[in-house]
Amino acid sequence: MIRRRDLIAAGAALPIAAAVPASARAAALRNPLILQRADPQVLRAGGWYYFMASVPEYDRLALRRARTIAGLAEAPETVVWRRPVSGKMGGYIWAPEIHCFDGAWHIYFAAGDSDEKFRIRTYVLQASGRNPLTAEWTLLGQLQTPWDSFTLDSTVFEHKGRRYICWAQHEPGIATNSNLYLAPLATPTTLGAAPARLTVPELDWETRKFKVAEGPALLARNGRLFLTYSASATDDRYCMGMLTAQDDADIMDPKSWSKSPVPVFASSEANQVYGPGHNSFVVDEHGRDLLVYHGRDYREIQGDPLFDPNRHTRVQPIRYRPDGTPDFGAPVKNGPLV
Fold first, then answer.
1. Residue 99 and residue 97: Cα distance in Å, rounded?
2. Residue 4, SS3 per DSSP
3. Residues 214, 235, 236, 308: which is the catalytic one?
């Protein structure tokens, strides 16, 4: 999630900012920004941009940082955690996000077990210090939710002085792959209240091949909360939906949220970008709101889309309609970002 006040707070909490040199400010953004990095998240904190994403091998958590968004493309990558050779968390490692709160860094990520790779649950790492690339990371444990079931794609944000977590999970008794849930956080791994089920995939574009709602990301603008998410199979049918709530509403009440009846971001045949989704939001060094997401450069995939490595990280500015709602447009074509 991005709020302008959060950027100020992050800078105060992590006093490592430095002026961005003119040469860095002049660097041009190009798409794709980073090759073979899916489920991307960019966090702005303390004068740095931090980047995390799923790697094609699904075996590690890698972090990079740069002073500019464009600089992330060439920034060196540091492996901050590798899955164990066997046992718990020895399976597929998916969709990490890094967050800074309570004076510490936290990474939320999904992991399967070595003997059951799709037994996906969410875990949390923690580290202290100003630089998370050199910090020592400790496993805090598994995110505790009401059900021991398929759980992934956690994102953390603050709203009206309270910290929340939003995630995707399969709820026993509901015939979907994953739904979206929201709850306040008591600790990094425990909920402060029973979760609210915000949405269940039910529309045609949310249920193509798989019934999926995953990858939530929050954008707070113009008196409203815009919660985007991704839906359907991870091929060219993958797309983004959006829930909207008033800023002053009770966000734990599912009735406060309205769902867009159509995708807000989808494949573009004209621009040859397919399956855009699992996004995050960030403000660039020029003050523009950016959509960060992954997409492929081709439609046809051999085998399981999850094991096609070419979901590339992409970025583009967000425009706003006269009523204040975000207009994501279509995924832009490859090349310099105009």
1. 7
2. helix
3. 214
Q: Residue 110's closest CA among 152, 143, 148?
A: 152
CB 218 within 8 A of CB 1: yes
- Omega before 32 within 30 of 0, i.e. cis: yes
Q: Six-digit token pair at 59?
A: 């075996």
74 carries an active-site annotation: no
Is 148 catalytic? The answer is no
pLDDT digits (tens, 9 = 90+) for 234-288: 999 999 999 999 999 999 999 999 999 999 999 999 999 999 999 999 999 999 9
Catalytic member of 6, 39, 153, 171 = 39
- 285-328 pLDDT, tens per residue? 999 999 999 999 999 999 999 999 999 999 999 999 999 999 99
Asked if residue 221 lies in contact with residue 197, where contact means CB atoms within 8 angstroms, the answer is no
> Which class for 173: exposed (0-12), middle (13-18), buried (19 or more C-beta within 10 A)?
exposed
